[in-house]
């Protein structure tokens, strides 16, 4: 993933996904990028939520694939919060 693609992913997270997650009291953080993967950490009410797989598969991945069709989204939740988070 090049810098322009990373910036597109960050923009979609900041402008679209953060507001969606925050409606339910959750917080979305970008932990990092590796190849075509983006690592996202969910906190707040999303921390430990049993619906995290559905959120990843039905919300996060489709939105991010609008800018990068081959992206793989890896989601973690809970505490402790990983180092290297991108605050959006």
* Rg calculated over all Cα atoms: 12 Å
Helical percent range? 25-40%
Percentage of residues in strands: 25-35%
The count of β-strands is 3
Q: Oligomeric form of this entry?
A: single chain
CATH architecture: 2-Layer Sandwich
Distinct helical segment count? 2
Mean pLDDT equals 91
Shape, please? globular
By helix and strand content, what is the structural category?
alpha+beta
Question: What's the CATH topology label?
Answer: GMP Synthetase, Chain A, domain 3
Unreliable stretches (pLDDT < 50, length at least 5) are none
- In the residues, how many domains can be counted? 1
Secondary-structure element string: HEEHE
Distance between the termini: 20 Å
How would you characterize the largest beta sheet?
3 strands, mixed
What is the CATH level 1 assignment?
Alpha Beta
Going across the major beta sheet, what is the strand order? 1-2-3
The CATH homologous superfamily corresponds to: Fe-S cluster assembly (FSCA)
What descriptive keywords fit this protein?
single chain; 88 residues; alpha+beta; GMP Synthetase, Chain A, domain 3; 3-stranded mixed β-sheet; 3 strands; 39% helix
């Amino acid at each position: 993933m090049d810098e322009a693609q990373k910036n597109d992913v960050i923009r979609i997270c900041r402008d679209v996904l953060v507001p969606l997650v925050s409606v339910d009291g959750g917080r979305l953080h970008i932990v990092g990028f590796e190849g075509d993967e983006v690592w996202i950490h969910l906190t707040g009410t999303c921390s430990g939520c049993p619906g995290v797989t559905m959120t990843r598969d039905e919300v996060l991945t489709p939105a991010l694939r609008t800018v990068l069709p081959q992206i793989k989204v890896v989601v973690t939740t809970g505490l402790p919060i990983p180092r290297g988070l991108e605050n959006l």
